[in-house]
Amino acid sequence: MRAPFRAPMEGLPARVTIYEVGPRDGLQNEKTVLPATVKAEFVARLARAGLTTIEATSFVHPKWVPQLADAEELLGRMERVPGVRYPVLVPNERGLDRALGLGVTDIAIFGSATETFAQRNLNRSVDGSLAMFAPVVERACAAGLAVRAYLSMCFGDPWEGPVPIAQVVRTGKRLLDLGCDQLSLGDTIGVGTPGHVTALLRAFGEAGVGTERLAVHFHDTYGQALANTLAALRAGVSVVDASAGGIGGCPYAKSATGNLATEDLVWMLSGLGVRTGVDLAALVETSVWLAAELGRPSPSRVVQALAAELATTRAAAGQEAAGPAAERASEAAPGRSSGPPAAEQE
Q1: Which residues share a beta bridge with 146?
Q2: 65, 89, 105, 323: which has the fewest C-beta neighbours closer than 10 Å?
Q3: pTM score, whole prediction
Q4: Cα dihedral sign, 46-140-179-167
Q5: What's residue 24's pLDDT?
Q6: Residue 141 known to be catalytic
Q7: Are 111 and 171 in contact (CB under 8 A)?
Q8: Which CDD domains match (predicted)?
């Protein structure tokens, strides 16, 4: 399968961890509700493709996210691969109780940098949401769980407009101060640009938060996701959120289109000589399969570019494998005429 020309750039991390969010953040915004068996297969395919962090589902109330109402069933069906982490999103202590009861080892909470989105997404203020998260994080840490915090609307809010950098840093630090291991900075509506990304990460550094505690989560609404990712990598970030096939968005912000596609990210990183451990061909196959399950084409440009080539290669390989077998069958039954199978001849 075609691969990018490798031309490393200075100042980039040698390896990037891809935090795969397709099964959660991707599927939660799809109109098609997939059965748990298909979701479990999706997660398994992602693990086989080499992804080592796969956000599996969410324990948000099914009234708000019906696409993920089968969280318990999915976790019961999933086959855990050693060395792969399967975090789940929990909004409150009830969600944490459910997660702990199922043996979850990694959780995430989901905050907002703006008051309007906090009210629309969590039905409470920023301060109120932090108060809700505090016992969740405390109990999770006491139980030995890894805890990630998402911070949405870090670059722009559809109701409030541009979000001040100082406001984002202040709220992000408060989430980390609760005890979270990592903070993922979300461009929920995709309005960020590389200069904005650089300025925000610099501001976190000046506030005492190093890039080793930060991840980035870009949506591609304005086609800036890869450029913004490269800016984050040059600033020292080495954890990037992405969604297989580019599926997803945000159900509470209609201007938020799909996530950065994992395939597009892997293509860029491969060309830059940055290791990910991901098998791009296997990942493209997974997204082609998922697109068929969802009943719509994959938004990923790399999937679109490589899917036809991959299908042709697989078909050719199948014909080559079938050729010798057909010849052997013919040699084993000399003189047999071509025609219907023996059962039909009778």
Answers
A1: 106
A2: 323
A3: 0.89
A4: positive
A5: 97
A6: no
A7: yes
A8: DRE_TIM_HMGL
